[in-house]
Design goal:
The complex is a heterodimer of chains A (309) and B (354).
Chain A (H helix, E strand, L loop, with lengths): L4 E10 L2 E11 L2 E6 L6 H9 L6 E6 L7 H7 E4 L11 H12 L3 H14 L15 H13 L5 E4 L8 H16 L3 E6 L2 H4 L5 E6 L2 E7 H10 L2 E6 L3 H9 L4 E6 L5 E6 L2 H13 L6 E4 L5 H9 L3
Parallel strand pairs in A: 3-7, 3-8, 5-6, 6-7
Antiparallel strand pairs in A: 1-2, 1-4, 8-9, 10-12, 10-13, 11-12
Helix pairs in contact in A: 3-4, 3-5, 4-5
Chain B lengths: L1 H21 L4 H28 L6 H5 L7 H8 L4 E9 L2 E11 L3 E8 L2 E9 L3 H39 L2 H5 L5 H33 L3 H40 L4 H12 L6 H4 L3 H8 L12 H7 L7 H25 L8
Antiparallel strand pairs in B: 1-2, 2-3, 3-4
Helix pairs in contact in B: 1-7, 2-5, 2-7, 5-7, 5-8, 7-8, 7-13, 8-11, 8-13, 11-13
Classes of the chains: A alpha/beta (309), B alpha+beta (354).
Chain lengths: 309, 354
């Protein structure tokens, strides 16, 4: 039996609207991040993997099991969805334990596993309370507890770091790493590449329902390195600073703002740009503020889809 | 494997049954189920009150029955004493002005009404304060025209349509679809939860209404009824109500999977059930109501003054024997559940389209 997740020419349409288009993928064990802007098809891919929706064309195999067979698939798979709601009236404890009872665990074993999972996400005190009264972060954590409670081989997480505070985020990332270290699949989605690139073994970039880049993280990073970064600078003598910047070969473009007190700068090297700015400041220029103009991943997609500028 | 499925069905039913019973959206189901019981209980209270009031002024039956047509009002009053009610009025008829009077007496069980025209006794009638025969007829009519056709029908719509459609609206269906459970097993588990809730609500409602009907009747009549057909009547009414939940539950469970708007299937099914009496015999057997009415121990009374079309709609078709009625209903239910199982296998979680 294959231990990969395999998509073969998979397409999914929502009526006339394209969900994903002829996606072919092989995802090995480890941490894999699906990255793309909102509406790009990340959740569609995850829902297809778990059988919540069915492919119109193509086949999917999750470690050798078809998503059309939930009985076997969900025994080895945990899915932490983006859907916020729990069944009406459920407490955090009931939300996790009900799921385990459906797996066929005895009430005693389900109880033990429930508390173990709840402890892993540090939610013991809130467990007897109704999920409907949880904060966004707590809901995220209880869903995570539910998805890991049966120790799945494939853990799928839709935007799992949304709404988590820094401490919980670090603990959650450690949990993903621990899963991956045991040869399991951890597949997570994000629309912020910088959020997941440090924890991922593989990255899949998706836009408009198509895979635009996939592979090990350093390969994708190289693509990013080639992609010029944009910065906005505010300074009283923008024309002088522009002249100083433009002298460097890693600066590809400098645009002067209409009020002549601001600049848009495109650079191929953030490190060298940072050094250069230090020199300019030490040289007596007053720099009031520097803001990265393309911190989100959308500009990278634009670059990848458009073939560079 | 079968044991696992059975365990999963029971687990799902256990998790869901509380929701089916305690859903705030389903409070009106209890009102529907308890309405006949409240009605009969109210009637019982009224009967008891009248009995208590009128017992202070009982007139002997032999004396009341000795009154003859044509006697004068004053003579009747002299013979029987002060009536329970005595009122006079005038009526114009064909240009004549008639003086009318009505006097009412009570012998402890029956009410006697004497109608006088121009001071002479023209007509007399009597009616039991509470009649077992009359009340069982009323119960039969209420059960077949209201309880089976409307209360259980709409109650099951509320309970069973919500099992899947409600989860879609609450955006919680994925919880069930992400469990390692065959979709068919999920369907059966949810159906069982709805069935337990609806059968207890409507079966219980039927029993309550039945006891409420008997509560105020003459104890001797009631005892004779229990020793006779009473227990059988209670059993078959309750069984019909519960089997109604079995049949209508499956229909609305399937409708909830196939259609978004409950008004459409409810109207179509109500129409189908209503026109069933006009259909050929083979099509009549595809109706839940046909089997349920076949199981009722007493035919529903039909008013002779009712318009012919309405009478045809309300009159039950030639009833099936009880065994065939039960088997037929279970057969229709199995067929509908099979259709529902095909639908649930194809069902996708796509809340944005809801």
């Amino acid at each position: 039996m294959s231990n990969e997740i395999i998509f073969t020419e998979v397409s999914k349409f929502y009526g006339e609207v394209l969900g994903v288009n002829r996606v072919s993928l092989r995802v090995p064990p480890g941490i894999t991040s699906l990255v793309g802007p909102n509406g790009s098809g990340k959740t569609t891919l995850m829902n297809l993997m778990c059988g919540l929706i069915h492919a119109d064309q193509g086949t999917i195999s999750v470690r050798g099991i078809s998503p059309r067979n939930p009985e076997q698939l969900m025994r080895q798979t945990g899915y932490c969805t983006q859907f916020d709601a729990a069944p009406r009236g459920y407490t955090g404890y009931q939300f996790v334990s009900a799921s385990l009872l459906l797996h066929g665990y005895s009430p005693a074993e389900a109880d033990e596993r429930t508390w173990r999972a709840i402890d892993r996400v540090n939610l013991r005190e809130a467990a007897p309370r109704k999920v409907a009264g949880y904060s966004k972060g707590m809901r995220q954590r209880i869903r995570l507890a539910q998805s890991i409670a049966h120790e799945p081989d494939v853990l799928i997480l839709d935007e799992p770091l949304n709404g988590l505070d820094p401490l919980v985020r670090a603990e959650t990332i450690a949990l993903f790493r621990e899963f991956a270290a045991r040869g399991k699949h951890v597949i997570l989605s994000s629309h912020v590449l910088q959020e997941v690139d440090v924890i991922s073994d593989q990255v899949i970039l998706i836009a408009n329902g198509s895979i635009i880049a996939e592979g090990q993280i350093h390969n994708v990073r190289e693509e990013m390195t080639e992609h010029p970064s944009q910065f906005l600078i505010r300074c009283p003598d923008a024309a002088k600073v522009a002249a100083l910047l433009f002298a460097e070969d890693h600066i590809t473009e400098v645009r002067l703002h209409a009020d002549r007190q601001g600049l848009l700068v495109l650079t191929r090297s953030r490190e060298r740009f940072s050094e250069l700015l230090n020199q300019i400041v030490l040289g007596g220029q007053n720099i009031e503020s520097i803001v990265q103009a393309d911190a989100n991943v959308d500009s990278l997609y634009e670059y990848l889809i458009g073939g560079g500028r | 494997m079968t044991k696992l499925w059975a365990n999963q069905v029971l687990t799902i039913a256990r998790l869901e049954v509380r929701k089916a019973f305690l859903s705030k959206r389903g409070l009106w189901v209890y009102l529907l189920a308890l309405f006949p019981a409240v009605l009969f209980f109210g009637h019982g209270i009224d009967t008891q009150w009248k009995r208590k009031q009128w017992s202070q002024q009982v007139t002997s039956r032999s004396l009341v029955e000795s009154v003859q047509i044509g006697e004068r009002a004053a003579d009747v009053r002299l013979k029987l004493g002060k009536p329970l009610r005595d009122f006079e009025y005038r009526r114009r008829r064909d240009g004549n002005d008639e003086s009318r009077r009505m006097m009412e007496y009570f012998d402890g069980q029956r009410r006697y009404k004497f109608h006088f025209v121009d001071d002479l006794l023209k007509d007399k009638s009597d009616q039991a304060l509470a009649s077992l025969e009359e009340d069982t007829q009323v119960f039969s009519g209420m059960f077949q025209y209201f309880y089976l056709r409307l209360a259980i029908f709409f109650g099951c719509l509320g309970i069973f349509m919500n099992l899947f459609r409600g989860e879609m609206l609450d955006k919680t269906l994925h919880f069930w679809f992400l469990a390692p459970v065959r979709r068919e097993v999920l369907l059966v588990g949810k159906y069982l939860a709805g069935l337990v809730a609806s059968a207890i609500i409507f079966g219980g409602g039927t029993m309550l209404a039945f006891f409420a009907m008997l509560w105020a009747l003459d104890p001797a009549d009631v005892q004779a009824y229990w020793q006779g057909p009473g227990m059988g009547h209670l059993f078959w009414y309750t069984a019909s109500a519960m089997l109604g939940c079995v049949g209508y539950g499956s229909v609305f469970l399937a409708a909830g999977l196939l259609l978004r708007n409950p008004i459409v299937p409810a109207s179509m099914i109500l129409l189908w059930e209503s026109i069933n009496g006009f259909l050929p015999a083979i099509l009549q057997k595809l109706s839940i109501l046909y089997y349920l009415q076949s199981l009722c121990p007493l035919p529903a009374p039909v008013d002779k003054n009712m318009p012919a079309v309405l009478r045809l709609i309300l009159a039950p078709a030639e009833p099936a024997p009880a065994v065939w009625a039960v088997l037929g209903l279970l057969g229709v239910t199995a067929l509908v559940l099979w259709v529902a199982s095909q639908a649930v296998r194809r069902l996708e979680v796509n809340y944005s389209t809801e």
